[in-house]
Every structure is written in C-alpha cells, then in structure tokens.
Amino acid sequence: MAMAPGSRCCLLLLLLLLLGVLGAPALGDPGPLEDVVIDRYYIPKICLREAQMGDFIRYHYNGTFKDGKKFDSSYDRGATVAGVVGVGRLITGMDRGLQGMCVNERRHLIVPPHLGYGSIGVAGLIPPDATLYFDVVMLDIWNKNDKLQITTLSKPQRCNRTVENSDFVRYHYNGTLLDGTPFDSSYSKGSTYDTYVGTGWLIKGMDQGLLGMCAGEKRSIIIPPFLAYGEKGYGTVIPPQASLVFSVLLVDFHNPKDGVFLEHLEVPETCKRRAVTGDFVRYHYNGTLMDGTLFDSSYSRNQTYNTYIGKGYIIPGMDQGLQGVCVGEHRRVVIPPHLAYGENGAGDKIPGSAVLIFDVHIIDFHNPADPVEIETVFRPEGCNVTSRHRDFVRYHYNCSLLDGTRLFSSHDYEKPQEVTLGANKVIEGLNSGLLDMCAGERRVLIVPPHLGHGESGARGVPGSAVLRFEVELISMEEGVPEGYLFIWHGEPPANLYEQMDLNKDGEIPAEEFSTFIKTQVAEGKGRLMPSSDPEKVIADMFQNQDRNQDGKITPEELKLKSDEDQEKIHEEL
C-alpha cells in the first residue's frame, strides 16, 4: 500500500528518535574508527614519485593524543626516522598512512587503537586503547632497485668531446637532500670542485653522473643512498640513508694524456709559408676558459702579442699550437693545463688545472735570417740598364702590413719618392728591393723587421712588423761614389783654379763656382750627385771648399776629393 510523502517524513523522524532512546550513536559522534584517517593538508606541486610498499623512506613526525599532549617526536631527538614502508616494520596505521606520500608532502594521520598499540599500549608512554595523532612530513623516498636519475638542464650547441673515466674535471655544484635542504655548494667556496672521474675519488653516483657531460653542460643528478653515503651518512649535514640531489655545471675537463687540440677556423687560400720553430710571430688573441670566461685579450690592449715560437718564451701548449700557422690564419688552440699553467693557475684570472682556449689571428711572422723577398710583377722588354748602388731613383710605392692594413703611399703626394740608393735615407729592405730594377719595372717586396723598422717600429708602423711594398721604378740617374758631390768623366783640368776663376781676379766667389760647375755638367765633362735640387748640391760643394767661410775660395783652399783622400781629409768636392 502506497504512503503519502508527508507520512514517510513522520515515520523517518520516529525511527531516528527511537534509535536515540535505544542508545544508538548520535549524528555528531561517528563512533570507533575502522581505518586510519588521512588528511593531506600540504601536497607539493611537483611529485616525482609516491611512497610504495617496500620503499625506503625518511620522515619527521610529531605524535600526540587527542587532547594534544605529545608522546613522541623525531624533531626532539634531532634525527629523522628511516625505514621500509608497508612490510610490517611500523605500526599498521603508520604503514598505511605513509603510503602514497610525496617528498615534502605533509599529512595529519589519526590512527585508531587497533591499528596502533591496541589494548596493551606502551608502558609509561601510550595507554591502552589510545587513538594516536601524527603530523608527518616526508623527506626522502628510494628503493633498492633505483638507478641514478640524470636530467640534462642545458647543453651547449657544440660538444666535441664528453667526459670519460680517468678524465680530470672541474665543476660547480649545489648539493641538497631530496627535500631541498642544502648541505654543500662549491659556489659558496668561490672555487670549482676539481677531481678525477672513475678513479674512486668521488661517491659512486657522482662518478657515474658526470660521465658523458660536455663542458658548459648543466645536469641534475639524483643519487640514491647506496650510491652515495649509505647507512653512515656524512657528518652532520647528510643523514644516514639520504638521497642526494646535485645541480652540476661542468666548467671544463681534460685527460692527463691530452695534447694540444687545433681547430683551423679560417686558412687563407694561398699560404706560401708556414711558421716553424725559431720564427718570430705577431698575433692577436682572445683567451677564454672552457666555459667561455674571457681571461685575456690582445685586442683590449690594441697591440699584438709578439714572440718567438718553439723556444720556450710562451707556455708549451702555445709553442706547439702556433707551429705551422699561415699569415692571416684564424686558429683555435685548446691547451690542457699540463701544457699551460698547471695546478697553480696564473693570477686571479686562470684557475688551477684550467683548460685554456686561444682564438688567434696571425698578423705576420718572419725569421731573423730572412732576406727581403722580391717578386717581380712586371719587367719591361729590352731592359738593359738597371738601378745600382748610389743611383738616384724616383719611384712610387704602396706600403702595408701583411694583414692588408694600409700604412703609407707615395700616391698621396704630388711627386714620386726620390732617394739615392745606399745613402741610408730609406730602410735597408726597401733599398735592397730597389736595386737592379729597370725604369717601369714593378715589384712586390716583403721586408722583415730587421731590414725594416725593427723591434721599436716607427710612427704608424708597429714594432717587429713585416712590411709589404708595391713599388714601381719611374726613373733613375747614374750616381756618384759615396762621399762625392761631383765627379769628372775624365781627368780634371791641370790648371783647375785658373779655369774656375772666370774674371781672373785671384778669388772665386759662389757665383763663379756655380757657373763653372754647371758648364762642366752641360759639356759632359762631369756630373753632380743626382738630386732634386742641384743648386743645393753646388752650394754644399762651395761651402766645403770655402774653408774659412769668407764667401770666396782661394788657391790654397781648393782641393780635389781624391787629393783629400790621399791626405786622409774627409772634405768633399
């Protein structure tokens, strides 16, 4: 028989009242607990794993009764609790309540008596039939089947080599427990951790975790306790059975058997000569550590580094690394520490045991025994007369460094350059390069510094620089012997003074002297030292003969250069 809705409500109310009279529990009192009550009041955003049956865990806890009275605390003992979960080594309520927890998760657990210490309790500590309240934080989880967990955080685009056993590594690290508690850091010490890999100097997990890394790579390495410090822990900072997390930056590495590694970044298409031991090299460089830290640069000083190679003036690795370079070459030289500054490093820029990388640009090199290198670009046909020592020549030139840097050019001026060959008016190398040239001939001259401007250089010319000249001989005039301003083509007149004294007044002023000399040249009887200013040459001749400087030459003063040489007097005519 169906009942009206209002009748059902009245019947339900009567049943509830009846149960209350008979002693059934009220709605606000659920009665004895059948299972552990779990309140996950803090769950971390990232949970890489949850505690499972058979896992080894470490945790802290406070244990209280319902009234808040504390009966136990791992914090008070100053040590975490470690053990295996789910295998009956803990009270059943705790075994159940800890399963599924993440590292850093916090839980409130209410453990009923039959899942705690039951009707017996713990004498003097936990009364019989006590409900227990635990506040738990999970700190570590691992399993005997765990392996090393490696996560690559960043990796350089170029990686020519990776860490192998027996390599020596330099790395920075932050070390934390699995819950994030820091225990050590190389950064706080201001220096890298330096050691060999795979030789037992590190904990097993780190030995394994560094293998395969590139210089500049960052890794997170999670190491289970049995590959770390195990049951004993380490001092006061690493508890027993603690998993370790290392954030590692590999700064550099090398092997004691390593030699110099060369990378040819740019080699000129034409390379006529390569540097060898004993050559003097000028080069620019940037010096960096393997992580890219710049420790030195010649560019910052705006000056090349100049040195002999193969003679021990520079670190052994650079001595080796510069062998065989071409002018203009860009080369990378990677030098292990045993060929650089070793375990001690250098100053505050190069740490001990650091691998060094030099990016070098070869500006030029030469050997102290080098002559002038002459390349004839053009030589006119029918060339029978060539330039000789003491000839007066006119020429155009362009001067540059071997890297193409322009220094000087005669084309910047209205007239060609003029010089008497052998008169020490130009550098020795250019003087040599202008000999035996025909008018109209063009040459390229490579002049080493000992035949150029030497170690000191000159205005606009760096010290020890090899110079490149492009020269064209425009014209030449036959010269006179050294020390002479004028020479006779034949024998000089026997009565030289009388002929030179044109007005026969017994003295020769400057005007008479000049007129006489010009007449001899015009008639082909003699020639002046070639010069762009013949008048000055004649004036110098007159001054040499006017020995008392009274403006005229007397018979006693006039002497030929040949006569003076015989008398060992070094005055000129």
TrEMBL record:
**Molecular functions per Gene Ontology:** calcium ion binding; peptidyl-prolyl cis-trans isomerase activity
| Function statement | PPIases accelerate the folding of proteins during protein synthesis.
PANTHER family recorded for this chain? PEPTIDYL-PROLYL CIS-TRANS ISOMERASE FKBP10 (PTHR46046:SF3), PEPTIDYLPROLYL ISOMERASE (PTHR46046)
Q: From start to end residue, where is composition biased (Basic and acidic residues)? A: 547-573
What reaction does this enzyme carry out catalytically? [protein]-peptidylproline (omega=180) = [protein]-peptidylproline (omega=0)
Instruction: Spell out the protein name for this chain.
Output: peptidylprolyl isomerase
- Primary localization class, coarse: endoplasmic reticulum
Q: Which residues form the signal peptide?
A: 1-23
Region spans: Disordered: 541-573
Q: Which InterPro entries match?
A: EF-hand-dom_pair, EF_Hand_1_Ca_BS, EF_hand_dom, FKBP-like_isomerase, PPIase_dom_sf, PPIase_FKBP_dom
Compartments in which it is found: Endoplasmic reticulum
Keywords, comma-separated and alphabetical: Calcium, Endoplasmic reticulum, Glycoprotein, Isomerase, Metal-binding, Repeat, Rotamase, Signal
Q: Which GO terms describe its cellular component?
A: endoplasmic reticulum
